[in-house]
Amino acid sequence: MHASDQDKKREWKLQQRQHAQAAFPISSSLLESLFEAVDACVEESGCNHSLRFTMQWIAEHKQPEKPILGWLAEHGGVCDCEVVANAADHWEQNR
Fold first, then answer.
1. CA nearest neighbour of 88 among 40, 16, 18, 19
2. Which residue range is the domain that position 19 belongs to?
3. In angstroms, rounded to a whole number, what is the distance separating the alpha carbons of residues 82 and 95?
4. At 51, phi and psi to the nearest 5?
5. Counted domains in the chain
6. Tens place of pLDDT per residue across the chain (95 aa)
7. Which of 31, 63, 71, 91 measures 20 to 30 Å from 18, CA to CA?
8. How many contiguous H segments (helices) and E segments (strands) does the chain have?
9. Beta-carbon count within 10 A of 55 CB
């Protein structure tokens, strides 16, 4: 791969990451808090294939439910264990 092609690829990846960051429904630090809290709850209590821990965090932190749940679902987070496995992975790769 030529240097100019590598530069184009790097630029494209940066643009993709910026686009992903702009789509975060809340700040990156709040998403980190959400993922850490849900992960801890899933580790302790397991996943019942609902969003009970995610919803609990949203309510406790007075965050906008609809945009967060929509973004999580868009990135494979349709239950608490998938929030941790899929949506958190997308966030981690793009933060």
1. 40
2. 3-94
3. 18
4. -110, 35
5. 1
6. 677 888 888 888 888 888 888 989 999 999 999 999 999 999 999 999 999 999 999 999 999 999 999 999 999 999 999 999 999 999 999 98
7. 63
8. 6, 0
9. 15
